[in-house]
Design a protein that fits this description.
about 140 residues, single chain, four-stranded mixed sheet, 8 strands, 2,3-Dihydroxybiphenyl 1,2-Dioxygenase, domain 1, alpha/beta, 2 helices
């Protein structure tokens, strides 16, 4: 039998402008942990932490920029790969109030299939983030 997965190690997001992305994720409570530079492949990774979440921002040098991502909430629904990252908050309403006070536009405020509130926001590169009160039940962890 193989070892069971114990959790998510980190989330990596490719960004276009590191400084804009860093400012955005700092607003969300992330702090800088370390920077990793790979000169041979021409990229930089900035590791951020907001316990217990570890987020890596990956930026390629100008000569190796990634393709742009879709900008609408429904774009990419039928494409392979990750669609969004969901972050759990204590109160979606309190989070929306805070986001409004910081000028962060959120959208698609709705309820999950289980009835928990959720809201979406895009980072400076258009990556989709979900904020929800939903928790995985202990039944799903067995």
């Amino acid at each position: 039998m193989i070892n069971r997965i114990q959790g998510v190690e980190h989330i990596q997001i490719t960004v276009h402008k590191m400084e804009a992305s860093l400012a955005f994720y700092r607003l969300l409570g992330f702090t800088e942990y370390r920077t990793i530079r790979n000169d041979s492949d021409r990229y930089t990774v900035l590791v951020l932490i907001a316990e217990p979440v570890v987020l890596e921002l990956l930026q390629f040098d100008e000569s190796a920029q990634p393709l742009e991502s879709p900008r609408t909430v429904t774009a990419g629904l039928r494409t392979l790969g990750f669609r969004h990252v969901a972050l759990r908050v204590a109160s979606v309403q309190a989070w929306c109030d805070w986001a409004t006070s910081k000028g962060l536009p959120f959208f698609s405020r709705q309820l999950t299939a289980s009835g928990a509130p959720q809201v979406f926001i895009r980072d400076p590169d258009g990556n989709l983030l979900e904020f929800t009160e939903t928790q995985v039940s202990s039944d799903a962890r067995s």
